């Protein structure tokens, strides 16, 4: 998290990335090119069964200002303008999606050695207002995340969390879904030289009393190749291998099998990300 507690989204993020990032059951190709003026264009195509979806992302940077324009295959256009370090620690973000007239919003993020604040408001007559705040240090952080719909007068969500970071260990506890779901996560670096990491996530529904448990691990076979595995209490097991075949270019192969229905075919996903 750096020198401060970070933003609320960083609570439990290491464990979530370990357990869920890069796993997929589709075929995905991503190619990034750069113009002589520094404009980056990323073209992405994903084959989801009989459906093919794609998008083109254009990123333009000028000092502290970044503009991202994403055109998707459904003809929607998402534009995001980010101004970093407007003042020390402050980031301003303006985003809008066409043709969704209610999607426009402005967001402010502020990082301090003992606090992290993020607030956003929709640019409509009756906007949705989001606020998240974290206080503490890089070791212990306590925060909350609230979303309020001014049109209905109701809270869309109300979450709270705490995170503890010490050397090679990160533990977090969050209360989500307006107090109906309790989530605990654990992230432990076993061997930093081999990038060997283990982690777990336990979700308990206070309403249905149902528990969901997911455990996972990763290990670097060599400086360019990493393997990851995970399994949950429903018997769903996943594994992937990711290789950096050139700088910033990755090939990822992942698979999923249901151990309680082993006769079913395994799901296989493939992703190729190419950057010059």
TrEMBL record:
Q: Which domain of life is it from?
A: Eukaryota
- Keywords on this record? Ion transport, Membrane, Porin, Transmembrane, Transmembrane beta strand, Transport
**In which compartments does the protein localize?**
Membrane
Indicate the secretion signal residues.
none
Keyword Ion transport applies: yes
Q: Name a single GO cellular component.
A: pore complex
Has keyword Nuclease?
no
Question: Where are the coiled-coil regions?
Answer: none
What InterPro entries does this protein map onto? Answer: Porin_dom_sf, Porin_Euk, Porin_Euk/Tom40
Gene Ontology molecular function, alphabetical: porin activity; voltage-gated monoatomic anion channel activity
GO BP terms: namely: response to bacterium
- Family of this protein: Belongs to the eukaryotic mitochondrial porin (TC 1.B.8.1) family.
Q: Kindly provide the name given to this protein in its UniProt entry.
A: Mitochondrial outer membrane protein porin 3
Q: Which organism is it from?
A: Raphanus sativus
């Amino acid at each position: 998290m750096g020198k401060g507690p970070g933003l609320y989204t960083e609570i439990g993020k290491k464990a979530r990335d370990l357990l869920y990032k890069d796993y997929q059951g589709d075929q995905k190709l991503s190619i990034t090119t750069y113009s002589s003026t520094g404009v980056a264009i990323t073209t992405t195509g994903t084959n989801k069964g009989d459906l093919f979806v794609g998008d083109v992302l254009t990123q333009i940077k000028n000092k502290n200002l970044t503009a991202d324009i994403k055109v998707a295959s459904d003809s929607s256009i998402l534009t995001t303008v980010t101004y970093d370090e407007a003042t020390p620690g402050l980031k301003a973000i303006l985003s809008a999606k066409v043709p969704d007239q209610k999607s426009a919003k402005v967001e402010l993020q502020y990082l301090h050695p003992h606090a992290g604040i993020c607030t956003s408001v929709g640019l409509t007559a009756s906007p949705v207002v989001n606020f998240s705040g974290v206080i503490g240090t890089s070791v212990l952080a306590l925060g909350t995340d609230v979303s309020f719909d001014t049109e209905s007068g109701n809270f869309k969500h109300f979450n709270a969390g705490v995170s503890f970071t010490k050397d090679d260990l990160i533990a977090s506890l969050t209360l989500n879904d307006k107090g109906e779901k309790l989530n605990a996560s654990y992230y432990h670096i076993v061997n930093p030289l081999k990038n060997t990491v283990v982690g777990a996530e336990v979700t308990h529904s206070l309403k249905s009393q149902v528990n969901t448990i997911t455990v996972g691990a990763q290990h670097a076979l060599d400086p360019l190749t990493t393997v990851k595995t995970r399994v949950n209490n429903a018997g769903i097991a996943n594994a992937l291998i990711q290789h950096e075949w050139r700088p910033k270019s990755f090939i990822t192969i992942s698979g999923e099998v249901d151990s309680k229905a082993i006769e079913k075919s395994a799901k296989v996903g493939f992703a190729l990300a190419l950057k010059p």
